[in-house]
């Protein structure tokens, strides 16, 4: 491979310099561009090149031809082709010779040239190549050719079956020109069975056939053919029916695909037999609606072929699938081509000639319509003015021309003539013809003032294409020129300047706008089709949409992206909106466990990827404002089998995940409401003290600009509270986890209650946690209750702007600044204190102290919170739970959460156990904190 | 009053899933014709037809769009400035009804605010002689009516094949479109400059729905 690699490197740099005057269209590498320019299959790479003079001789060459000067140009060698093009006039001589057709290479003695090679082909042509330039370069070229030929040997066996399918070969064989034995008539289009469109006499099909026959004899055919001026001339006058298919595929290069992948068409069909998809459904709808006036498409034979080619393509390229207009194009191709030929031509058409025309967003179509408009503007400014002034939608007329390659617009015979040139010259043909149509009808069109008459002028024009362009001319020769001929001349002469380069320039200019329009359309549609999300507003959905596509990196506009989010993208997404998700750079595998959980839970289709709708539904659950629903949602994450219970593994997982999710608070860089309230109170106390000291009665409250608040203390309290919550959770969860059903019996029989109790903690005993118990355990802890009612929800900022990531490191300093900045809040609190001081003049000072660091002071702080929160009675979060309240709470819970499988007795039992555990928990907190916690953290 | 009225031009767009019969409805309305195998519309087609409602002549400028999903991104180009829209579904294809719902939403969001929309369930001929037990019908009249009421649309069931109710759709739309529509939405209910009274602009004067039709 190294051999090719080094050559390849060199070749690329040479091509770059050769082609530097030609701009490579954006999105194409130089290699791709080379393949397109010469109609080679993608992947061909120039491995050697040289300046050369070329002479091509066949047994049938006329002497006149032999006397011509040898064409000069560059010869390129790729893995499978020898390519040459006359440097001065590409139409004078060019060839694309498949190396499989090379029968022998001889080195000719030559004085004037460094190296001269004679290449003999299967088509009985002799290409004499005189390499010009440094001898060493020429030698290298010759050497490389040898290597290329050797490497290609395995491919040579494909040649025989292939030539059997070429009508050109059959034609020569039948006329005893070629020794290549063609066993049977090569497969062809439906025209063979149902007649070709048009009158063969009028089309002078026989004469055309004869001319091509002569050309094949002299210039070769299919895989080894020299394109001479005659070749182009014969294409311009229209191809003969029987050769049309083969010449189309030769001109566009789909022939090489058919050669390379000989069984693929059949295999695709076999593999997908009876399979259905959206595309196949869409195809079915249109089978009877494709060129219905042509006899073949009123018969099963025609419909079947059409179905097979369209579905095979939809399986081969699911991103395109099927687009209306493809049915018409393929139906037309199939008149002249075998199924396989049509299949590969369709491939090349969609991939290369008119990319994006049939894609899911049809960006290519939209773009080229825009390009067409600006070409009209540039080449026919008067007409363009008229069109814009009258608000005429040009694309209504022109879009079908491009999309169905004129096949649905003009009588088929004419459309096929345009196709003949189109396959040779590519998309510029479509533009040239379109411009010519407007130009020829310009005068009439200028008289119109609405879309209706504009369209009907052109419709009428298409119906009279066969009539004389100059019916009243005295000159009979002039009179015999048809409107169609006039159209072609105008298109290819007057608009010859509209070439690929110009089209590409215009495409580049408009691409962004078109893509933007498409994106906003696609976005609107996708958002509209999302499932309902009660917790997420439509504005937020729009932000989520943008973020989704910013991480998924599918190309929405080209309509190719699968638009699914894999885990890594999901993680990036979440890290941008959640406080508890660290960016990929500073996190380890343990950080992804919870995310994996969410991911697989939201992945409704089980495709290891989330669609936008999966994501949105998942997020909707995650920001649930209702406490009970939120707890249920969280429970469901671990209830894999939907059995309403979570096993030991699951319980451990929950506790680990809770630890993970609460990291920002546990580590003290984000504060929850409990801490905030405590701090606000402390601040209020300070202010109150300061104001009380002033002894002023004017009712004005001065807020000091500086204040001494023991920040680390609050941080510490919060950290401690979260650690405590975690340890309490795991302890209670196992305490109240219930043994499996069978175990219950054994447990009932057990004499010693404490033993069975311990059994739950024994890792060998299967236990499970059901939803009511899980709720109970969560609600029993104020920190976790707050977590589910508020903290978690608020730690996810779905509407974080795209260019902004959530700040997970907000620190205490901000918090204080914020408090002081929002003076009113503090002022209210202070005023409250003043009021209560006034009524309770004596002993408030001690109570308000928050400076002592023991637990009781925090509690007293909390009761104040409760008092102050009463105004906002919808807020679950900050109700502190003391021993007395707990009973009440559990009583109520027991009612709401009645689990039908648990009878009353067991519920009382549960309650009792709960209280026991509470007591036990109180005793064992320290132990837990010390040992177990670490175990869970790792 | 005996002068021939100048025709009011009304831009009308047809939307709906592929093969529900949009082009066929237009063909029936414009040429009173029907084709068994109509080629799919590529991009859009444009046709005009005059229609007399009472004393008034409306010249419909009809934009018949392509139905396949991917052509949807072209649709804004065609419903731009439309005063009326016909959203078509096939009463034997439930998916086409869902699509119709989407189109209605899209129009409400994106098209002119005062656009008149008719919801049309086509291919009525296919269910005409169906028995209770065995019916090709997949979208009930109630569902169609429901959506129409919800979204404030006219509603019809039609057959382009038998021409059942087809003209009624266009007459219905015409009656609902205020005479001065092209002059701007503010002039609804007002008398015209030339003193003629607009008899048809009462928004409560709904045209007959499919069920009530005598034909
Ligand atoms: N039985 C029946 N067939 C209909 C009716 N209307 C249309 N069709 C058939 O349904 C098929 C599609 O009709 P079109 O009018 O082309 O549908 P369209 O909505 O314009 O389709 P697109 O252009 O692809 O969006 C054709 O084969 C019609 O013959 C109808 O009322 N009854
Ligand atoms: Mg149509």
UniProtKB/TrEMBL annotation, chain A:
Compositional bias (Low complexity): 836-858
SMART domains: TBC
Domain of life: Eukaryota
UniProt cross-references to InterPro entries, sorted A to Z: EF-hand-dom_pair, GRAM, Rab-GAP-TBC_dom, Rab-GAP_TBC_sf, Rab_GAP_TBC_domain
Rab-GAP TBC domain segment(s): 238-426
Single annotated GO MF: GTPase activator activity
Transit peptide among keywords: no
GO cellular component assignments: cytoplasm; mating projection tip
KW rRNA processing (keyword) present: no
Name recorded for this polypeptide: GTPase activating protein (GAP)
Organism the protein comes from: Scheffersomyces stipitis (strain ATCC 58785 / CBS 6054 / NBRC 10063 / NRRL Y-11545)
Gene of this entry: GYP2
From TrEMBL, chain B:
Keyword Nucleotide-binding appears in the UniProt entry: yes
CDD domains on file: Rab5_related
Residue numbers spanned by region Disordered: 182-215
Keyword Zinc carried by entry: no
Biased composition range(s): Polar residues: 184-194
Organism superkingdom: Eukaryota
Signal peptide: none
An annotated Gene Ontology molecular function: GTP binding
Protein name: Rab5-like GTPase
Organism this protein belongs to: Scheffersomyces stipitis (strain ATCC 58785 / CBS 6054 / NBRC 10063 / NRRL Y-11545)
């Amino acid at each position: 491979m190294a051999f090719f690699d080094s050559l390849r490197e060199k070749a690329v740099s040479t091509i770059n310099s050769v082609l530097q005057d030609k701009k490579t269209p954006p999105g194409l590498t130089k290699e791709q561009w080379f393949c397109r320019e010469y109609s080679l299959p993608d992947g061909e790479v120039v491995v050697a090149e040289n300046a050369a003079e070329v002479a091509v001789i066949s047994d049938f060459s006329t002497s006149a031809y032999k006397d011509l000067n040898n064409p000069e140009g560059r010869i390129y060698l790729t893995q499978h082709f020898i390519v040459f093009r006359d440097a001065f006039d590409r139409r004078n001589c060019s060839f694309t010779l498949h190396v499989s057709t090379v029968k022998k290479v001889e080195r000719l003695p030559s004085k004037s040239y460094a190296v001269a090679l004679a290449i003999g082909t299967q088509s009985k042509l002799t290409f004499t190549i005189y390499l010009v330039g440094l001898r060493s370069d020429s030698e290298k070229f010759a050497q490389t050719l040898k290597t290329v030929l050797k490497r290609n040997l395995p491919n040579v066996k494909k040649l025989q079956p292939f030539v059997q399918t070429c009508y050109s070969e059959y034609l020569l064989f039948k006329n005893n020109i070629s020794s290549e034995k063609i066993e049977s008539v090569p497969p062809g289009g439906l025209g063979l069975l149902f007649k070709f469109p048009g009158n063969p006499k009028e089309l002078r099909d026989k004469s055309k056939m004869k001319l091509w026959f002569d050309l094949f004899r002299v210039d070769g055919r299919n895989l080894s053919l020299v394109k001479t001026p005659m070749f182009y001339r014969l294409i311009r006058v229209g191809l003969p029916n029987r050769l049309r298919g083969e010449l189309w595929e030769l001109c566009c290069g789909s022939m090489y695909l058919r050669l390379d992948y000989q069984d693929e068409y059949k295999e695709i069909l076999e593999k997908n037999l009876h399979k259905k998809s959206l595309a196949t459904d869409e195809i079915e709808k249109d089978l009877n609606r494709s060129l219905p006036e042509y006899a073949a498409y009123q018969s099963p034979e025609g419909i079947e072929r059409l179905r097979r080619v369209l579905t095979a393509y939809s399986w081969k390229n699911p991103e395109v699938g099927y687009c209306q207009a493809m049915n018409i194009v393929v139906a037309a191709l199939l008149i002249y081509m075998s199924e396989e030929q049509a299949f590969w031509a369709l491939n090349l058409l969609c991939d290369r000639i008119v990319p994006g025309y049939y894609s899911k967003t049809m960006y290519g179509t939209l773009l080229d319509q825009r390009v067409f408009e600006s070409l009209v503007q540039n080449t026919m400014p008067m007409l363009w003015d008229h069109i814009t002034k009258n608000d005429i939608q040009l694309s209504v007329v022109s879009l079908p021309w491009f999309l169905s390659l004129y096949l649905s617009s003009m009588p088929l015979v004419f459309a096929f003539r345009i196709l003949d040139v189109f396959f040779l010259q590519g998309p510029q043909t479509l533009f040239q013809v379109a411009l010519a149509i407007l130009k020829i009808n310009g005068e009439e069109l200028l008289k119109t003032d609405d879309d209706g008459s504009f369209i009907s002028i052109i419709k009428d024009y298409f119906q009279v294409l066969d009539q004389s362009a100059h019916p009243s001319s005295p000159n009979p020769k002039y009179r015999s020129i048809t409107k169609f001929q006039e159209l072609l001349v105008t298109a290819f002469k007057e608009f010859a300047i509209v070439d690929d380069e110009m089209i590409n320039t215009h495409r580049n200019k408009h691409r962004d706008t078109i893509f933007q329009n498409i994106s906003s359309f696609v976005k609107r549609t996708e958002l509209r089709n999302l499932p309902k999300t009660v917790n997420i507003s439509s504005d937020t959905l729009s932000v989520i949409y943008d973020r989704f596509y910013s991480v998924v990196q599918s190309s929405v506009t080209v309509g190719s992206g699968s638009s699914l989010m894999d885990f890594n993208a999901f993680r990036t997404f979440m890290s941008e909106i959640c406080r508890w998700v660290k960016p990929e750079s500073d996190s380890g595998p343990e950080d992804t466990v919870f995310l994996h959980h969410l991911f697989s839970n939201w992945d409704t289709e089980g495709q290891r990827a989330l669609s936008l709708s999966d994501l949105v539904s998942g997020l909707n659950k995650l920001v649930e404002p209702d406490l009970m629903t939120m707890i249920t949602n969280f429970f469901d994450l671990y209830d894999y089998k939907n059995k309403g219970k979570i096993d030991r593994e699951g319980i451990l997982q929950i506790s680990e995940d809770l630890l993970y999710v609460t990291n920002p608070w546990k580590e003290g860089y984000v504060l929850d409401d409990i801490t905030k309230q405590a701090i606000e109170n402390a601040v209020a106390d300070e202010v109150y003290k300061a104001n009380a000291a002033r002894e002023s009665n004017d009712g004005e409250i001065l807020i000091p600009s500086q204040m001494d608040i023991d920040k680390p203390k609050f941080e510490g309290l919060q950290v401690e509270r979260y650690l405590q919550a975690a340890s309490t959770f795991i302890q209670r969860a196992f305490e109240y986890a219930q043994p499996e059903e069978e175990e219950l019996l054994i447990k009932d029989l057990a004499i010693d209650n404490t033993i069975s109790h311990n059994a739950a903690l024994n890792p060998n005993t299967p236990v499970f946690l059901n939803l009511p118990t899980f709720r109970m355990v969560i609600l029993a802890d104020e920190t976790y209750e707050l977590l589910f009612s508020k903290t978690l929800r608020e730690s996810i900022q779905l509407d974080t702007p795209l260019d902004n990531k959530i700040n997970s490191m907000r620190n205490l300093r901000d918090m204080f600044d914020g408090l002081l900045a929002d003076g009113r809040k503090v002022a209210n609190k202070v005023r409250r204190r003043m009021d209560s001081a006034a009524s309770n003049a004596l002993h408030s000072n001690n109570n308000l102290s928050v400076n002592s660091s023991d637990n009781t002071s925090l509690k007293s702080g909390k009761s104040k919170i409760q008092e102050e929160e009463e105004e906002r009675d919808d807020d679950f979060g900050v109700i502190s739970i003391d021993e007395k309240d707990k009973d009440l709470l559990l009583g109520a819970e027991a009612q709401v959460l009645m689990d039908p499988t648990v009878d009353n007795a067991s519920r009382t039992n549960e309650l009792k156990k709960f209280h026991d555990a509470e007591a036990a928990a109180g005793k064992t907190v320290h132990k837990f904190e010390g040992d177990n916690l670490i175990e869970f953290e790792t | 009053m005996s002068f021939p009225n100048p025709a009011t031009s009304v831009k009308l767009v047809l939307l709906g899933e592929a093969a529900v019969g949009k082009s066929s409805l237009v063909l029936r309305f414009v040429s009173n014709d029907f084709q068994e195998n109509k080629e799919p519309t590529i991009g859009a087609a444009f046709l005009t037809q005059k229609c007399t409602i009472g004393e008034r002549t409306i010249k419909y400028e009809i934009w018949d769009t392509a139905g396949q999903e991917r052509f949807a991104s072209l649709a804004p180009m065609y419903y731009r400035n439309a005063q009326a829209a016909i959203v078509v579904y096939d009463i034997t294809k439930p998916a086409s009804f869902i699509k119709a719902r989407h189109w209605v939403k899209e129009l409400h969001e994106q098209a002119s605010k005062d656009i008149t929309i008719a919801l049309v369930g086509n291919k009525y001929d296919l269910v005409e002689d169906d028995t209770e037990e065995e019916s090709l019908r997949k979208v009930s009249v109630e569902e169609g009516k429901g959506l129409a009421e919800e979204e404030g649309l006219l509603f019809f069931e039609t057959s382009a094949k038998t021409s059942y109710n087809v003209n009624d759709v266009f007459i219905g739309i015409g009656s609902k479109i205020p005479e001065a529509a092209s002059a701007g939405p503010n002039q609804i209910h007002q008398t015209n400059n030339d003193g003629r009274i607009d008899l048809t602009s009462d928004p409560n004067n709904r045209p007959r729905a499919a069920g009530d039709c005598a034909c």
